[in-house]
Design a protein that fits this description.
This protein is an alpha+beta fold and 120 residues long. It has a single domain (6-115), classed as Diaminopimelate Epimerase, Chain A, domain 1. It has helices at residues 6-23, 38-47, 76-79, 82-97, 101-118; strands spanning 26-31, 56-62, 67-72. Helix 2 (38-47) links the parallel strand 1 (26-31) and strand 2. The chain is globular, with a radius of gyration of 13 Å.
Length: 120
Amino acid sequence: MRGLNATQADDLRQAMHTAERRSGLRFGVFVGEPVGGRRHFAERLHAALGEEADDAVVVFVDPTGRALEIVTGEHARRQLSDGACRMTAMSMATAFSVGDLVGGLLYGIAALGEQATARR
């Protein structure tokens, strides 16, 4: 969570913990520049979760490159459709576009957690 202060990082950790507890999924956030293509990088971050990857959601944001990727594992995809992820990503991008990186991330994690809980 590079580029975030301690309070912002704590807020994001709390949001992820809440989403995980409610949905049963694992959430991860990476803020920074990708190494290689952004989608491929986000997929590698997700795969690095190993056995937990099937139940995981990774949100990758590159503020400098204005990029956002949401990667879901096989089991997580049953609770989070591509459409739900797209709609959440659009709302997050709107917050990012006005300079609210943390607000967009907090909204996105909460929204993904709620949607996954509803389909649990």
